[in-house]
Amino acid sequence: MGEIKLEPGWKEKLQPEFESAYMAGLRSFLVDEKKNGQVVFPKGEEYFRALDLTPLERVKVVILGQDPYHGPGQAHGLCFSVRPGVRTPPSLVNIYKELAADVGFQKVDHGFLEHWAKQGVLLLNSVLTVRQAAAASHRGKGWEEFTDAVIRVVNDECPHVVFILWGAYAQKKASFVDRSRHLVLKSPHPSPLSAHNGFFGSRPFSKANQFLLEQGIEPIDWQLPKDPGES
Asked: What distance lies between CA 111 and its chain's CA centroid?
């Protein structure tokens, strides 16, 4: 990873993690992957893209994913999001369907979610890197501890945040969130395997905005621009 370049508010709170033994081990693992000729996604400068686009003091909503996409050109540091020009993945197609039913979302021809991130939606994967064409290949190497720390910082430092937890993995990872201050919204995962078991009809986007409004916080504009370059 080299010298960590990170949004200053996050860097201050997460500095102990970067100095930890598990992070040293993770660095060594990533160096070895590249020495051994493995292609790792996303690019190194995008490992912490979610944190850079959504500073700690601006976090309104947290959406948790698991791993980056492992195909060429897909991952760029935000969960569920892909670069412009890349086919929209099936889970995100289902997210768009629920958005349309919930808040009147107009379908777009891309899967680039930076528009949300810049408004305060922290699109955080549990594991921040992956080997090309090898799903879950970087699990258990230290990233989970780091992203647990990110969630703890949000829980402790932010007054009122909506945690949108899709699927058992995300729900377990954020099980310690203080529900007396934050809103926790749970449903099955939007993947084609589980979306019909309760994801569709769960209305997380309108519920999130209702909570934010009740706290005097500006709601999220979930409508993505037609042109991803306008994000």
From this structure: 14
Return the exposure string of 150-183: e unless at least 16 CB atoms fall within 10 Å of the residue's CB, then b: bbebbbeebeebbbbbbbeebbebbeebeeeebb
Catalytic member of 32, 67, 221, 227:
67
Cβ(62)–Cβ(151) below 8 Å: yes
Position 3 in a domain: no
pLDDT in tens, 17-39: 999 999 999 999 999 999 999 99
Parent domain of 83 = 8-214
Q: Whole-model pTM?
A: 0.97
Q: Phi and psi dihedrals of 66, rounded to 5?
A: -105, -70
**Is 48 within a domain?**
yes
Helix-then-strand count for the chain, H and E = 8, 6
C-alpha–C-alpha distance, residues 43 and 41, integer Å:
6
68: left (phi over 0), alpha (psi -120 to 50) or beta: beta
CA 38 to chain CA mean position, Å: 24
Residue 24, domain CATH? 3.40.470.10
Examine the residue annotation and report whether 178 is marked as an active-site residue of this protein: no
